[in-house]
Amino acid sequence: MADLSAFPITSRWPAKNPDIIQLYSLQTPNGVKISVALEELALPYEPHYVSFATTDQKTAEFVSLNPNGRIPAIIDPNGPDGKPIGLFESGAILLYLAEKTGKLIPADAAGRYETIQWVFFQMAGIGPMFGQFGHFYKFAADKVANNSYPVERYRDEAKRLLSVLESRLKGRQWIMGDEYTIADITTFPWIRGADIFYGGREVLDYAKFPAVMDWLQRCIARPASEKGLNIPVKPA
Ligand SMILES: N[C@@H](CCC(=O)N[C@@H](CS)C(=O)NCC(=O)O)C(=O)O
């Protein structure tokens, strides 16, 4: 049985089965990327619920794994050289899982880098810009009631990024063409999230991006991806 005692996070979230991947997460756009990937890969894993209501993500135990105090994070007891590895940053975790299994990423070098390029496009563009849009449009709307600039700034940038994605997806089934990859998995939860968490469908003109909308439905229609969107479940 793997010994995870070197990871203080396991004292707050004990591993029932320390031989499988431990996931520390919540059903947010960044969090579900990892449960979606793990479900698609059919890898055994143990999800742990990190509650924002009790700021679990800022506790000493959580920060010992991710000094940035944000979900998602994982421990893989069977990391490189068979040793346990802890990882944070959703893009890094997705790349790790894809390389570990040789799945969800093309085998050829050019396709691999092209996929990584689109993963970075989400990580550096869609995630931060959509996140700021959601902040000002929904969560801090009262703080900018007298200043329309923050919402306009991030709304327009989010729409610009959607138009880049629209061009890429026109005539393609997935971001990388015929293969469903970590580029899709890192991106679709954000497009879905801006609608269901921020109520941004109209203000972001979703109807003007039909290729993105059709692709989003294809992503969600995948049984493993759909399952991953609902993990981790809040403990009773
Ligand atoms: N770049 C990071 C961003 C992680 C992130 O912002 N996670 C959010 C949830 S989607 C979070 O933990 N927020 C809680 C907080 O900021 O305290 C990643 O992709 O893993």
From TrEMBL:
Domain GST N-terminal: 18-105
Gene3D superfamilies according to UniProt: 1.20.1050.10, Glutaredoxin (3.40.30.10)
Keywords: Oxidoreductase
Superkingdom of origin organism: Bacteria
GO molecular function, a single term: oxidoreductase activity
First-tier enzyme category under EC: oxidoreductase
Entry's EC annotation: 1.8.4.-
Domain GST C-terminal: from-to ranges: 108-236
Pfam families: GST_C, GST_N
SUPFAM superfamilies the record matches: GST C-terminal domain-like, Thioredoxin-like
Family, per entry: Belongs to the GST superfamily.
Protein name: GST-like protein
Classification of source organism: Bacteria, Pseudomonadati, Pseudomonadota, Alphaproteobacteria, Hyphomicrobiales
